Structure formats: C-alpha cells, structure tokens
C-alpha cells in the first residue's frame, strides 16, 4: 500500500505545437490573450536573455548581466524588472542552456507580477544531490510561465510555494535522468504564508519523472486543462489537500507501473469540489486512487486498462465515477474499501455508474470495515474472473446493472 503523501521537508531552441485547451479557447475567443489588464502583451517583453558565443547576456534597456552562467543571466533579467511593480512585466529567454551542479538548492526565483516566456530548453546536469529547481516562486502573486521545456535531472522542474494567482501555459519535461526525487511540477503551501490559491495549468507533458509528474499540496482553486504523462515513478496527477479543482484531462501511461500510485490520485483530505472530465490510464499501478479522507470528487469518462488495480476508492466520501470503460486490469475493476484505522472517516456515499467493466478479477469489489451507503448503478459487466459485483454493506444499492 502506498502511504499518504507528506509535504517536502527540504527547503528550499525547442518549438512545440501549442495545444488548444479550454482556457486558451476561452481567452482567445474573447480576444483577451494580449489584452488582459495587468498581463504582459504576447508581442512585447521588458527584459531579455540571450547567448552570443559562450557568453550569456541579460538586457533591460542596457546590459544587466554578461557572463558564463545561464541561471544567473535569467535571474538578473528577473531582478531588473521594476521594483514594486503592480502590473506584469515579461522576461523573454531566447536560447536553450544548462543549469549545472550546485552545493545548495539553486533556482531562478520569481517575484510578483513576473511573466516568463522561454523559447528554448533548460537542460539540468546536476552531478551531485537533487538540488536544481529551474524556477521557484515563494510567497508571491501574479506570476505566469507561458511556456517552458526542461530536460535532465532537476529536483523539481517547477516549485510554487504559498503563492496566489499563478498561471502556467505549455510545460514540457523529459526527466528520464532523474533517479531520486525527480518531480515535475510541485505546487504547495510550504512557503510559510499559507496555502497556494488560484493556480492554473493549461497543458503539461511530462515523461520519465522519478516521482510524480504534477503534485499539489495545500492548494485552493485549481484549473488544469490537460496533463499527459509517460513512465513516471509516481502519479500522473496527484492532488493532496486541494479544494475547488477542475481538471479537463489526465492521460497517464505507466504511472508507477506495477506499484501503488495512480494515473490520477486524490489524497490527504482532498476536496471538496474536485472534478476530472476525462481519465485515461494505461499500465499504471492504479488507474484511479482516492484515499485518506478525500471527499466531494467526480471523475467522468474513464478508460483504465492494464493496471494492477483499475480504481481504489478508500477512506473516501461523496465521490462519483461516471461513464467509460475499465478493462483488463490485474485486480479489481473498482474496489470500494475502508481501512481499519480511525485516522480518516470510513468510505460512504460512493457512486459507480454507467461503466463498461470487463476482463478484470472482480468487477466491483466492496470491502469493509464500516464501508456503507454506496451505489453501483447501470453498469455493464462482462468476463470478470472472480465476480462481477461483491458487496460488503447491506446499505449499498445495486440497481440497473447488466451482465453478459
């Protein structure tokens, strides 16, 4: 069993087609991408980072940095923006470059009202401990990273701590060289000024992360378009202690294959008002996993295949899985369960409906102790080896299901 996730105790010239996401369509249709009040124009920038020969330059009216460090050039450009600004100013990073090994945690730290437009790739070549975080925002607000690609072995590709109004655009990471922490995007409340609020992510494609691809912990107000992940050691998308989250699509392939993490996981009192519009999980440890007091979650349009377990809904309340297919998983298509510990409320008010569930060990398997008041409605079951439906609670409703 994978344990509950805990916050980290450590303090702290690629061009890709831009995916069309819900947020981008809405903004584009309203003619707002370049005109939102306080947002830097898509066609202008205030500071610039570029390379000539082996020298990195940062300019803002004049030269504010020249030297051999890619990271220092980017930091100088960020630091050259107007002190005390109340509208966003943009840094354009024109070239790819490398962040090298360091003896302490090293990152580009972003201030409030900062926009990053990165045209290339940040390569992380850290030969020591996992101490490189390309971009970090802590106790700030009104920050955008419009596009970013990271390759190599960072500690985290991005780290957002106790911030508000943070918007990420198109984020791509290839992290096959990570061996220890190696997490893609981490958004949490570890900055000391409270929870992160109002975080959005249009599109993330993350592969090869040693741990989770995208993780939140202590966040209120999340709007995510699409998360696509391949070959991660942890979850595709993990929401811990997160409220009011709307996610369009999670597409996870081999997220913790053979293990206990999931393509999409909610944990540590996640909820309420959490919704996922589409989940595709192939060959993951689990396709879907809700646990440790998660509540108020709706997952729609699932396709879960080839996982150790299709879905585990454990110590979870007021949660619905609605529509799609769960097929060919080693264990249960869906297990509804409560642990014997009193650390979290037992499972109740779970609804499983409108699903095709076939070729698993069990179709839906409900277990105790104390699990109660669930609903298994209008599903079609076929060729599940041990049983189509097995319930634990006499209060669980089983209605309208069909069997081949």
UniProtKB/TrEMBL annotation:
<protein>
    <submittedName>
        <fullName>Right-handed parallel beta-helix repeat-containing protein</fullName>
    </submittedName>
</protein>
<dbReference type="InterPro" id="IPR012334">
    <property type="entry name" value="Pectin_lyas_fold"/>
</dbReference>
<feature type="domain" description="Right handed beta helix">
    <location>
        <begin position="281"/>
        <end position="403"/>
    </location>
</feature>
<keyword id="KW-0614">Plasmid</keyword>
<dbReference type="InterPro" id="IPR011050">
    <property type="entry name" value="Pectin_lyase_fold/virulence"/>
</dbReference>
<dbReference type="InterPro" id="IPR006626">
    <property type="entry name" value="PbH1"/>
</dbReference>
<dbReference type="Pfam" id="PF13229">
    <property type="entry name" value="Beta_helix"/>
</dbReference>
<dbReference type="InterPro" id="IPR039448">
    <property type="entry name" value="Beta_helix"/>
</dbReference>
């Amino acid at each position: 069993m994978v344990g509950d996730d805990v916050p980290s105790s450590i303090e702290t010239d690629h061009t890709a087609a831009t995916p069309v996401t819900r947020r981008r369509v809405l903004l584009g249709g309203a003619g707002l991408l370049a005109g939102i009040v306080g947002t830097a124009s898509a066609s202008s920038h205030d500071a610039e980072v570029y390379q000539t020969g082996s020298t990195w330059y940062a300019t803002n009216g004049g030269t504010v940095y020249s030297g051999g460090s890619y990271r220092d050039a980017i930091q100088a450009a960020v630091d050259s923006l107007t002190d005390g600004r109340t509208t966003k100013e943009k840094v354009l990073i024109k070239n790819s470059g490398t962040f090298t090994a360091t003896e302490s945690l090293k990152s580009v730290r972003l201030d409030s009202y900062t926009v990053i437009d990165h045209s290339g790739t940040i390569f992380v070549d850290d030969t020591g401990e996992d101490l490189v975080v390309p971009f970090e925002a802590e106790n700030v607000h009104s920050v955008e990273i419009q596009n970013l690609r990271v390759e190599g072995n960072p500690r985290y590709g991005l780290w957002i701590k106790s911030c508000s109004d943070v918007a990420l655009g198109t984020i791509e990471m290839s992290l096959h060289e990570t061996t220890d922490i190696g997490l893609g995007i981490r958004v949490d409340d570890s900055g000391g000024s409270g929870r992160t609020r109002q975080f959005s992510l249009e599109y993330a494609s993350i592969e090869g992360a040693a741990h989770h691809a995208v993780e939140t912990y202590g966040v209120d107000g999340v709007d995510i378009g699409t998360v696509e992940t391949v070959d991660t050691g942890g979850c595709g998308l993990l929401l811990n202690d997160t409220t009011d989250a709307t996610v369009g699509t999670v597409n996870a392939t081999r997220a913790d294959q053979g293990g206990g993490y999931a393509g999409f996981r909610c944990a540590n009192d996640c909820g309420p008002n959490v919704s996922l519009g589409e989940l595709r999980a192939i060959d993951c440890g689990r396709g879907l996993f809700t646990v440790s007091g998660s509540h108020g979650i709706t997952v729609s349009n699932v396709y879960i295949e080839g996982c150790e377990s299709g879905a585990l809904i454990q110590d979870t309340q007021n949660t619905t899985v609605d529509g799609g297919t769960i097929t060919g998983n080693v264990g249960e298509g869906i297990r509804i369960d409560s642990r014997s510990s009193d650390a979290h409320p037992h499972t109740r008010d779970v609804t499983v409906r409108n699903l095709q569930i076939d070729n698993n060990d069990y179709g839906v398997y409900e277990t105790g102790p104390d699990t109660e008041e669930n609903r298994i409605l209008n599903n079609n079951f076929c060729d599940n080896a041990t049983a189509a439906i097995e319930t634990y609670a006499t209060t669980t409703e089983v209605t309208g299901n069909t069997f081949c």
